[in-house]
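Hi everyone, sorry if this is the wrong subforum. Our group has a chain we'd like a structural model of before ordering constructs, and none of us has done structure prediction before. Sequence below.
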Amino acid sequence: MYSIIKKPLISEKNTMHSSIGTYVFEVDRKSTKDEIRHAVEKLFDVKVQSVNTQVCRDRSRRVGMNYSGVRYWKKALVRLKDGEKIALFEGA
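Answer:
Right subforum, don't worry. Here is the predicted structure as C-alpha cells:
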C-alpha cells in the first residue's frame, strides 16, 4: 500500500478538485487503477468511485554542458463517493 501511493499532490488546482471530491496522488508507475483504488480505500478508510491516471514526463534539466535524463512519474485522480472526505487534504 505504502509503495503504491508515494505522496499527495497539493496545489491550487488540486485544491479546487478536492472541493468536488477528487483527490490527486503521485503513485508508482507500475501500479494499476485497481491497486490504487484498494490502497486509497485501506489507507484513508473511504469508498472510491473512480480512478483516472496520467503518466507525466518531467522536463529535461541542464547539467553543465549536457542535459539530464527524463523522469517519468504517474499521477492518479481519485474520485470519492458522495459524502466521503480525506482529512489530510481538509487540514484536519
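For your construct planning: The chain has one domain: 5-60+68-81. Residues 33-44 form the longest helix (12 residues).
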